[in-house]
Amino acid sequence: MTQTRTTRLERGRSALGPALELVHTGQAPTRAVLTAELGVTRATAGAVANELETLGLITVDPHPTAPVGTQGRPSHRLAVDPRGPVALAAQIHADGYRAALVGLGGHLVATAPGCGTVDADPAQVISEVVRTGAQLLKDTGRRCVGAGLAVPSAVAEPEGTALNPLHLAWQAGAPVRDTFRACLAEAGITHAAGGSPVTGFAANDLNVAALAEYRHGAGRGAGHLLVVGTGHHGVGGALVLDGRLHTGSSGLALEVGHLTVDPGGRPCHCGSRGCLDVETDPAALFSAAGRTPSDRDSLLAQAGELIRSEYATDARVRAATGRLVDRLGLGLAGLVNILNPDRIVLAGLHRALVEADGERLRGVVADRSLWGRSGSVPVLPSALEHSSLVGAAELAWQPVLDDPIGALGG
Distances in Å between the alpha carbon of 189 and those of 32, 160, 283? Predict the structure, then answer.
């Protein structure tokens, strides 16, 4: 490295993390945009981009091009390196688990599901999903920067314990993060920068899904993003304020599944009745449609397929979908009154509901909410196929985004 480049890199080292995040989230497709966003000189931006390329995190197009239809100065295109390291992401739900490898930019490199009964001991399913992830790493030959676990429960910080796993047989307070880390070490998954075990993180599945949608999906650009969605059982929610998750004092914020939308409705696991949790999840759809799900696939996948394939042709499916849409709209209207979001993104089965009859859903939200009547609140389907997995990977990528050289030992 030349003295000039060394000086530029030292001047721009503090910009490495912000620069990587700009490329990671698609906000800096060229070196010219990177220069402007960072507020540095072209030379410093060039040194920063080259260092990130040396670390194997991004690629820099050696042949700069000018924007189509302009006479501007050509600029080098930037992109995440498709051959770069990955984060191991794991999601546990009531019907089993899924493991994935996720690169920068939220790109899924590989994924593998596992279905079955989740044991009362969290270590059973966590060890299974970790072994599945380890096999994906072996098969692809990728380096790993860390691991993230998404679970259907609020996760207390700093303890890393599952506070309310209502849809699993786990005891409240199960040490999911420590168990995850122990399983990663047992599986021999080591960090890309050396031989030490990777660090594991754990969080609520809807919280990390919201983070993924904010950075890579339908929530991009929102200042106050509300995400509501169904898992395989139950309903969760999350709020992203100016890029940061709002989790409350102990990780229990936005437990929207226990918002009552029908006081005389179905009994809920929390002890109340008519909660979103039991009025708008996959089980509620099958019950309202008079159908019985099979054991061949996850409940969430079957519910989504039922709407996509039979909504237009079966009156009972259409009526059941309408019932869930109305209940969901009531819940969203209450949340809009309280939170005043500038965008709502719906995930899981709720994504299928808004795709099936978004006009009806938006109408209920507008009619039943003060802010909805005074100004339209966009209600959008999630853009990511596996948002909780992508979000779990974001937890593992964060140390690299904060300090690329420190995290990767450059």
Answer: 38, 20, 37
Q: Which stretch of 5-9, 83-87, 108-112, 257-261 has the lowest confidence by average pLDDT?
A: 5-9
pTM, 2 dp: 0.90
pLDDT in tens, 44-56: 999 999 999 999 9
- The structure tokens listed for 207 are 């919280």
Residue burial 352-390, b: 16+ Cβ < 10 Å; e: rest: bbbbbbeebbbebbbebbebbeeeebebbbbbbebbbbb
First to last CA, the chain: 13
* Cα angle, residue 349 at apex, residues 346 and 352 outer, rounded to 5°: 75
Query: pLDDT tens digits, residue range 9-26?
Result: 555 578 999 999 999 999
Q: Is 267 exposed, middle or buried (0-12, 13-18, 19+ CB in 10 A)?
A: exposed
Task: Tokens for 41, please give them.
Answer: 């000189």
- Interatomic CA distance for residues 302 and 298, integer angstroms: 6
Question: 153: closest CA among 131, 177, 132, 130?
Answer: 177
What's the Cα-to-Cα distance from 167 to each of 115, 151, 228, 233, 321, rounded to whole Å? 15, 10, 17, 7, 23
| Single-letter code of the amino acid located at 127 | S
SS3 409: coil
Beta pairing partners, 30:
77
Q: Which of 327, 338, 337 is nearest to 373 (CA)?
A: 337
C-beta atoms surrounding 74 within 10 Å: 14
Task: Please name each of the domains of the chain with its CATH number.
Answer: 3-80 (1.10.10.10), 86-207+388-408 (3.30.420.40), 222-383 (3.30.420.40)
